Amino acid sequence: MATITKLSEARNLKNIQNQTITINADIDLGTETITLGSGCRLEFSENGRFRNGTLIGTVTNEYLDITDFGASTTSNSGNNAALTNAMNLCDNVFIPEGTFQVTGSVNITRSGIRLFGNGYHLSVIQSIYYNTSDTKTVDRERDKRLFNLVTVNSGIENISIENLALQSKGSKKKANYLIKVHEGTKNVHVKGCLLDNATGGVIVYLECEWINIIGCRFRNMVFLPGGSGGEQNEDKTRTLEGGAGGYGVVFQQNKEKPGIKHGVISSCVFESTVIRHAVYIQKSSDVLISDNVIYGTTAMNDNVGGENLVNILNTKGLTNDQLGNMEVNKHMTHFDYAFEYKGSHNVRITNNYLKGGIGFLNGMADANNIGGTMFLIKDNTAVEFDNNLGKADCPNGVKGDRNWICDIAIEGGAIIINSDNLSDQQ
Prior knowledge:
By secondary structure, the chain is mostly beta strands. Helices cover 8% and strands 38% of the residues. It has an 18-stranded parallel beta sheet that branches.
């Protein structure tokens, strides 16, 4: 058994193989890169840990705890390095009880990684976004420091994110998406997680396969100005008009490439603070959306609600009170299957419960077109749609052409295979 008590000894780890290595001091690696020999196991004494630097290798530990690599609930300076180093050495990385703040994306760069905690009410990874210009305008497009909290690299496989809370800190410190899965990734599982306080929950990009999002809770997904929803100037830069964000789950695509194959979104809760679409799927196939609860209301106050929402976001900025109001039960929920190009195939939507005032608001879409629709199924789509329950509960002030509806908007030649649904309208 080798015992490491100082940096000079850590530099020789590459020469140690097939042994248990005890880290018996708080060792700051600084900016150094340390390589571990093969077949080793790491043990940490009560005060033993590695901090900073870069660790390379593979250990035989069943799992590694990020606090053994310098992660702290009292400082965010070493938490990104702790997560990265743990994932470099071991497939299974444990986030213990506490809130661990990070100042940039947590990048999953190799296959087989499992990030897991003790439950989303205990284990938290929290993004920090500092708006040093100290303005009240929240602009996701112009300030590039808005980052995706967890990113999964292209082309890797077998990734699991379990029993964690992923969130942003504060009303003006939003992550972009809390989980972003890049192109060509396979077997991604998000289970038992809370996704909270960002412009979006999970976005999955082109040509991914076997994406499972199960038993998660989505809340405070806020629409922000700028981004892909904004109009362009002549120089192709984005203006503050329009905006993006506010989604729970997005399966993405473009004209040339398909979306995802084999996806499950099940047993999730989308709270009323998911401001745009609970689920937005484009050009995907073999997708099951089942047993989800989606609830909300469009009963917003005069300051942040209805037709004034986008105007305030775009031109007036947000006061702290207005931002606070956006994080309570005042926003729409909407299932939107906007199959923009070729539509999706073999989609089953079953046993979902939708409750609340549903619909687009003036300024966000044409309220006289599809306002008030719980489901939008569009463009040559084959969908099996059964046993969904919609319960309308809309107070005064709802914008759009229908104040209550448990309805499916079918556009662009969409095909519904089965529409045996329950309806409980008020």
